[in-house]
Amino acid sequence: MGHLQVTYFALFMVPDINAEADYNEWEREGAEGWNYNDLRPSVNSIRGYKKHFTIEEIDTFLNPKDSVQPLPIRIYDRTNTEPLVHGKLEDRIPVDLNTPRGTMGTATWAACIDNDGCRSSAATAYLTDDVLARPNLFVAVNCCVERILFENENSTPRAVGVELRTARNGPLFRVLASREVILSAGAYGTPHLLMVSGIGPEKELVEKKITVIKHLPAVGKNLVDHPTCGFVAYRTKGVPTYDYLNNPLNALFALAQWYMTGKGPMATLVAPGGAFVRSVPMIVLDETVHKPPSGMQGITLGVACLRPKSSGEITLKTDNIWDKPTVDPKWFSDEHDMHVLARGVRLLLKIARTKPLVDFVDYREDKRYPFLWPGTQDPVELTEEQLHDFIRTNSRLAWHPACTARMGKSEGSSVVNAKLKVHGIQSLRIIDVSIFPKQISGHPCAPIIAIAEKAADMIKEAYSVQ
Ligand SMILES: Cc1cc2nc3c(=O)[nH]c(=O)nc-3n(C[C@H](O)[C@H](O)[C@H](O)COP(=O)(O)OP(=O)(O)OC[C@H]3O[C@@H](n4cnc5c(N)ncnc54)[C@H](O)[C@@H]3O)c2cc1C
């Protein structure tokens, strides 16, 4: 069992389900039965909703708040709205994210909590004590699956199990499957494991002296993420930001407040809010990325390109799973992404100079702190080249890699079919972010969990299990 959903979902926990058009495009890409309406029941089955007291018009079809059953993922919009975020961009961008009017607009991010008010993750939501006690479930942690085992059945390979170890030179365990092997190793791990097991681009496998089980050229290709511009940092004046928590006493007080009341800064997300804007996708106010010098408080703003046209690849360094593969995201290989980010940076610089942020941001240039945005520069006068330079120097990914074992009809351009079964292999299914046919314009966790729910229903149906 892996950990990324556990750790990182708990860190950020932004559980949006994103735009309807994303999933309808999936179907056009060959993922039959995966349009928005198809996925909607699975979405609704994973989320309970606790309404935000300041936002009346939440679309209850997206957020079914009257659920009778306790649902695995409970979504909670924080009640302490951030003065720097919520409602303040509304002159420019509507405050109506996830309402019947659509998924564009700004809001504070929602978070996932469990029934005790603690942060929830896929693991804490699904692997509850009663589930872990089931006799037909064995959870092995800190293991690395080295390869998938195959048998040849009527000349079509069939996955029959896996081999795993707890350390590179540790003892080898063989786990056999009575029905299917299900692979959920993520956007990097899934293509890596497929390739060392003999499924992938034939030429690359042969180069690494791996016996080819199935030539599937799309394995490890089409890698997309959400490239961001990096962070534009401003010093603030006259208002505290979460940087006051850099003082251990303040942090201790905040922790005590959270223990006693469940509220306060410790009950918030590292990125408090954001906006979805067409062609100029996301603005996040965040305080964590640049730790300012002691005594200085500030905010950072960033923008991400949600539908990048550049795509990268994952290739093998060796035939051994313990050697990490090469991940080449090929950022900005398509100029579109740079243009989108540049437009986004220009927009957020303007927002920082618009009320109310303009009252809180201290624009003075200070050569001692080169990470601060030189506020004397007028966003309108900045050249494209200057923006591109900033982006090239600072850009980073949003940790949303996807599509490296994409779903589709053709063996030439995809890895799994609409049942999430690997083309040309029996009894091998993939259920994770790597099967996205196309990148989505938002956070991936909630859609991945919805995909897993839908896949579980398909599997139960295939084996006539209730
Ligand atoms: C810092 C960070 C913050 C994020 N914040 C958010 C957010 O706020 N909202 C959101 O929606 N998404 C967020 N994401 C993205 C989200 O975590 C991922 O998209 C999601 O976890 C992918 O889920 P998955 O099940 O496909 O794969 P993963 O969660 O990556 O699970 C795959 C697991 O398989 C394991 N594995 C790989 N290879 C092997 C092998 N050979 N043997 C055994 N195990 C193996 C890996 O260690 C990994 O734990 C964030 C990601 C990061 C890194």
TrEMBL record:
It holds the Pfam family GMC_oxred_N. Its cofactor is FAD. Residues 186-200 form the Glucose-methanol-choline oxidoreductase N-terminal domain. The active site is at residues 400, 443. The keyword Flavoprotein applies. The keyword Ubl conjugation does not apply. Keywords: FAD, Flavoprotein. InterPro entries: FAD/NAD-bd_sf (IPR036188), GMC_OxRdtase (IPR012132), GMC_OxRdtase_N (IPR000172), GMC_OxRtase_C (IPR007867). FAD binds at residues 145, 399-400. GO terms for molecular function: flavin adenine dinucleotide binding; oxidoreductase activity, acting on CH-OH group of donors. Belongs to the GMC oxidoreductase family. This is Glucose-methanol-choline oxidoreductase N-terminal domain-containing protein. It comes from Clathrus columnatus.
